[in-house]
Design brief:
6 helices; DHBP synthase; alpha/beta; 10-stranded mixed sheet
Length: 214
């Protein structure tokens, strides 16, 4: 039997995206479903923070192993501080970079589910994207999104920036695809912050000039 075709929902990525359409996506997330949606970097797959089934589906979709973990999308720094411990250096850096195309890997709080923690270290990746649809979704949900870039499995695959490609590669793994038009083709820049030390784990769309010297 063929897999059900996910709902595709067009949402204009302007400052105030359609409240009715955002509510429809949030309803899917509240029910434990998985959504594909645009961010300020590339398209992403995401579910509500407590949805174990949703997280498992994202893992299967990307063929991720146990060394890889999902990040958290938060609407603002006050929300992020519930799930991550910010040193003074990390907080100053976050204020400079968020919202924006960065992921900060920080010590995790007890509020973070085990499915999100990086193996062997209680760390969590935090994202606060500068994209109206993503922010509207996480605000409407009222809690963080577990998220991972929409990168098909395979060493030679790149992050997806077109909703048609997202549907082709991940349609059978998601319940809804938010078509917000094309995005950047680069994933977020990932920075690990330990005390006052900042290490670049992945260079992506967010520029790193001056970050390590700040």
């Amino acid at each position: 039997m063929a897999a059900p075709v996910p709902l595709r929902l067009d949402i204009e990525p302007h400052a105030n995206p359609s409240a009715r359409k955002i509510a429809r996506v949030v309803e899917v997330l509240h029910e434990g479903g998985v959504a594909a949606y645009p961010t300020d970097t590339v398209y992403a797959l995401g579910c509500a923070i407590e949805s174990r089934r949703g997280a498992e589906r994202i893992y299967r979709a990307k063929q991720m192993n146990e060394d890889q973990r999902l990040a958290l999308i938060c609407p603002d720094l006050s929300s992020a501080a519930i799930y991550a411990h910010f040193s003074q250096a990390a907080f100053r850096l976050a204020r400079r970079l968020f919202p924006g195309p960065y992921t900060l890997v920080l010590p995790a709080s007890r509020e973070v589910p085990r499915t999100v923690l990086l193996k062997k270290r209680r760390q969590v990746g935090i994202r606060i994207p500068e994209h109206p649809i993503t922010l509207a979704l996480v605000r409407g949900l009222g809690r963080p999104l577990l998220t991972s870039s929409a990168i098909p499995p395979g060493a030679d695959q790149v992050a997806l920036s077109d909703p048609d490609d997202v549907l082709d590669h991940f349609g059978r793994f998601v319940d809804i695809v938010v078509d917000g038009g094309p995005t950047s083709a680069e994933p977020s820049t990932v920075l690990e912050v330990t005390d006052d030390e900042v290490v670049v784990l992945r260079e992506g769309r967010g520029p790193i000039e001056g970050i390590l010297d700040a």
